[in-house]
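User: Could you check the structure of this?
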Amino acid sequence: MIDPHSFGWLHDAVSWLLVPSLAALLAACAIALVEAGIAVGERFHGLRRLRDGGNVAQVQAIARHRLERADLLARIPPMLGLMATIIPLGPGLAALGAGDPAQLASAVTVAFDATVLGLVAGIGGLVIGKLRRRWYEETLEAMEDAMENAA
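Assistant: Sure, the predicted structure tokens are below.
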């Protein structure tokens, strides 16, 4: 049998990750809002300016960079949300075993809130990425058509 006291250091190390995970989730939600604002600006002004500039390589580089940001936003926050969901459940279940259901309720509340934050930021990143991908493809196609018609 595994001695529960021999892995106390592991529990302490993992518990330390809860606050940074929650902070990163809050930051991810803020970044999703900022990215949504940038995407709106791109859609109504930035893409037209890039298309009129005529530099396909520049548009491809900008698209790649912005799509990578959206992809990271779609993938990392849900993982952080899962991490911040599981971390408080260990102490919460231990508290239940010790007869303290109030601490379990607190841990479950933190766990569910972390899940929601991760999903909100991830959904934002997914939607922004899908829209940007379509917008940049349309822009590049329009630029290629314009170059073919000019030739």
